[in-house]
Every structure is written in C-alpha cells, then in structure tokens.
Recover the amino acids of this structure.
C-alpha cells in the first residue's frame, strides 16, 4: 500500500470521529491540519482543538490515535497537538458549514 492510499484511508477514519460538543466530524470541522504517512506505515497527524481548554482534549487525541492506528497499512501513529495557527470557523469544510447552518 503506498503512502497516498494510506493517507486517503486515514482521512476516511478521521471522518468517523466527532467532536462531542459539535455534531460534525473532526476532519470537516478543520481540526486536522496535516496527515503524513511514509511507505512503512509510520503516520503523523497534526491537529488542533476548537479551544485550548477543551475538556475533551484527551478523549479526542486518544480517538485519533486509536482510529488511525486501526487503519489498514498503518504501523505506527504519532498525534501532534498544536494551537498554531489557532482554530477558527474559517477552517470548516463546506459540508460542516451547511450542517451547522452557517451558509
């Protein structure tokens, strides 16, 4: 499996994780900044949260690590939490904007 196929499968897996306070998956919510996989299945996911003091931070990070780790072709997962740049509503996908009534 090549890195592009692994990354595609990871995005599909990330769309199964929902922010408990917002009825939108974390990928369409714009919380995932970067997904990198190599040919050996080593993956890094750089993500943020809607707020630095998010009470569900540990749960969301664990969910990302678990879902990505269960993705075919993935052998190792590193989840990197960042707040630079800070999350804003500009990061919402079109689908998320529609679902949240922002369009």
């Amino acid at each position: 499996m090549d890195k592009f196929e692994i990354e595609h499968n990871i995005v599909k897996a990330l769309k199964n994780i929902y922010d408990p306070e917002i009825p939108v998956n974390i990928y369409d919510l714009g919380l995932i900044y970067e997904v990198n996989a190599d040919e050996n299945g080593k993956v890094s996911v750089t993500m943020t949260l809607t707020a630095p003091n998010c009470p569900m931070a540990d749960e969301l990070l664990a969910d990302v690590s678990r879902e990505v780790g269960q993705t075919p072709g993935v052998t190792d997962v590193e989840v990197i939490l960042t707040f630079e740049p800070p999350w804003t509503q500009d990061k919402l996908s079109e689908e998320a904007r529609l679902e949240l009534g922002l369009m």
Observations:
- The CA atoms of residues 47 and 68 lie 13 Å apart.
- Residues 3-86 form a domain with the GMP Synthetase; Chain A, domain 3 fold (CATH 3.30.300.130).
- Helices lie at 3-14, 57-69, 94-99.
